Amino acid sequence: MYNLIVNDGKTIRKEFPLNEQITVIGREEGCHIILDSKTISKKHFRIISKGLKIYVEDLNSTNGVSINDQKIEKITEITENDIIQFGVYFAQLNNTNKLKKSYKVDEVVAQKQNDSLKKNSAPYFKLVCVDKRYPGLTFEIQDGISAIGRTKKSDFVLPDDTLSGRHLQLTKTGPKLFIEDLDSANGSMLNSRKVRGKLQVFANDKIEIGSVVFSVESNIEKTAAKRSPKKIIIIASGILGFSMVVLFLISQLKSDPTLDTKNIKQKSIEDKIESRDKEIQKKVGFAELAATKGDWDSAIKYCNEVTEMDPANERVKTLLVKYKGEADNYLIFKEGRQAIDLYDFEKALTSLSKVPKGTYYSSDATMLIRQAKEELMKKYYKDARSFRKAKRFKDAYEQLKKLFDLTPSYEESVDLKSKLELDMKDYGIKYEKFEIKIEAADSSFDTDKFDKKALVAKYPEHEVNTAVEYFIGGDIQRSLKFLSKVGASHKSYQVCQDLTKKLQLFKSKFDTGNSEFINKNYAQAREAWQTALDIEKELLADLEMQSKYAKQMKYNLSEGFNELGQTALKNERYKSAYKHFKESYEFNPNNTQNLQDMAKMKELATKFWNKSLELEQKGDKKAFSYWEAIISITDETEELHKNASAKISGAGK
Question: Which of 132, 207, 313, 555 has its CA 20 to 30 A from that of 235?
Fold first, then answer.
């Protein structure tokens, strides 16, 4: 039994019992634990108890949830020693079976208070990265001169392709911090304005280095500067001098007919167009950054602003359609998640099934669908037993039918189905009988044509071939149960024992892979599932058959690596994108999405090739980077790969 200790270091220090399987924490009525603070959302996060394990899940809160100072993006397991931070609160699990004299959460709160006092007494500056690609990245600025860049020549190293080797210089002198761009390729921005020369920064300023955005944390606020009389005189003199120069130029313009006023107007128009294009590019960047955080309202707002500036921009039109679709998906996903919080699992299943595959919320929706199905299966089985006890046999039978529509492998319900059919026969009740399907309920995995003769020829023992048949059909629990009934005196006992060990190892690796896949650890999932696939290959050697499990693993891996490829492509990491798309294609060559993605990479390679030829004609060495990119996103057998390799080899000679 666990309690949750919550401490804000000021007014609250309470313990709340975690009596429910799911405990929701927030500030609105209906939450299990209600905390009155504007720093937390209406439904901020929830704590899930599964056996002896405890998990924390952020419910898309505004300020997020951190475990041991690391912001979480997915369901995360916690222990008694972990510190949960949300808003102004710190929390820790307390095992009521263990007696403790002190708690880590109280020590952390005390330390935070001490740090706060130190920060308030001495000037400090921190650069906190707000880019989702680099969660938790913080640079603490010390007195003196330092630099941020991509290489080890810089004091603060950030290996991002949009940064130069030494990109931005930081100069801290006591309570003042100045920044200066070091002639970087992509420039630097302070509060959306280009950094030219040395500029002073203050708390809450936004610094953009390449494509990476930092927020300034400091106890030095920006205040209005008091000007001395001497400075006022100097400024007034400057304004007067500027006015005289303007008057002189106007008089020259009137007296000198040789001045070409048309050229001046033309340059003014060109400057306006250039300024507009830069503004469009900046807003598109903001829209894409908002989309990576799931902030669809902001993303749509920026796209609409660009559409007003440039109605013919096709790229933004495409993004706008995509973001509006994702906003609709969020509402569907939110409805399903709220239904789960309210234990309305049927409604949750209906809503979450509407979230399209391959979208921002699809993987989270899949995980919640599994949770809803598990809860519904327990409910249907429990209701069926209750109805049978009350002799409402037809109602009980209907509940079982619903259960089997979700899964064919709920072992306990098979015996209950047989008993109900006998009950209705004894009582003379007419009913419509349904058969249990061997194949899984998910129609994405169609079972191969089953060759019973070939199976019996490979495994002549009846117990063994029956167990393997259940395994192929996707019911490993039934296989193991069937094998466990074979006694030590039976002639096929040893063969059954060997098969049991293999199936148990298969199930262990399959379950491990499922867990890693849910947490989006696709490389670890592949490692576990590869072992499971090797075991299946051994069991079904020489048989032209494939189990339901193999199809599910390959399908899931294809979807997982496709998602990684899409993310890499969005962040312009083309080599990684190509690698993941290729892996996805290997696991499921029939997936039309994979074929489209591979075609996109070929189109991209063609664009890179055309651009490289333009740069080569101008003598620009940037052509090399395009040739290297082409090599990284094409196969050795492709023509573009050979041409790019030849260009690099020729240039080297």
Answer: 207
